[in-house]
Amino acid sequence: MSNATRIEESAVAWCVKRERADWSASDQAELDAWLSESTAHRVAMLRMEYGWQRVDRMAALRSSSLSQVAPVHSPYQPDSKKRWLAMAAGFLLVMSLSIFGAQQWMGNGTQRYVTMVGGHETVPLKDGSNVELNTNTHLRAVVDEKARVVWLDKGEAYFEVAHDEKRPFVVYAGDRRIVVLGTHFLVRRDHDRIEVMVAEGRVRVEGVDTTKPLKSAIITPGNMVVSESGSMMVAMASPEKVESELAWRRGYLVFDRTSLASVAEQFNRYNEKKILIEDPKIIDTRISGSFEANNVDAFGRLLQRAYGLSVVDHKGQLWIAQQE
């Protein structure tokens, strides 16, 4: 066996070990020491992490054919640590895997859930936790006696996590990992933008790639994290902000002097009938109030009556402009 192959296999083993619930500070120290030994070690780890993320993306593509909310169980379960490592060795071939093969590798014990545009569902997990999925959300979960891991591939979800000191609850969203023992929190993923808000308890938000100096933070109620393009910001979240961000759980959107452009963007997340603004002069019109997320026609009538705007329903879209 060549030295390069041994390094690749070590990187695979580290990737698999790091996903286990019993990953500790001493394990992290050992990994850091291994990475610092040579550039070849760091490059191998980056290759593995890139491949892992690619498998995530391929799995998400395949899951898009599921129904409104579709839990799908993989056809078999890993029966030993040895089997996990054997599967991980196959990960070295990830660049040549078909979508189906990649799904099988990542899919051991995995349940997948999807909501369509305008969908809203609550999913109970095996550990007693609940996950509430917002519109157009793709999520995968592995929950067993050893680990509790969720991948938020797209969209927004609210987590009510059952307390378990022996099995931290881990959520992966883009390049961020959220680690909790038991709490209530919100995660939204829109491409590479990640938002995390805590309603109860506390969570740790950290980078997935340990070879990059990504900032980490512990957030509690009253704080939120916004992560985008490798950077992360911790901001204050007032009770009003939290209420507004979680209003979708009741089927509503809440705005407080929000621009019409932003309001339209929010409504378009929940409806196949889109709001299209024809006149750039009105995009900064300020909107306040609480609205049913799935009733875009009622909002259109409000724009006509309260704001004096022209609203035309044409080919299944609402076109907004100034009155002539």
TrEMBL record:
Species lineage: Bacteria, Pseudomonadati, Pseudomonadota, Gammaproteobacteria, Nevskiales
Record keyword Ribonucleoprotein present: no
UniProt name for this protein: Iron dicitrate transport regulator FecR
Transmembrane region(s): 84-106
Molecular-function annotations in GO: sigma factor antagonist activity
Superkingdom of the source species: Bacteria
Keyword Membrane listed: yes
Record-annotated FecR protein domain positions: 112-204
Gene3D superfamilies hit by this protein: 2.60.120.1440, 3.55.50.30
Keyword entries, A-Z: Membrane, Transmembrane, Transmembrane helix
Organism: Stenotrophobium rhamnosiphilum
InterPro entries xref list: FecR (IPR006860), FecR_N (IPR032623), Ferrdict_sens_TM (IPR012373)
Domain FecR N-terminal: 10-49
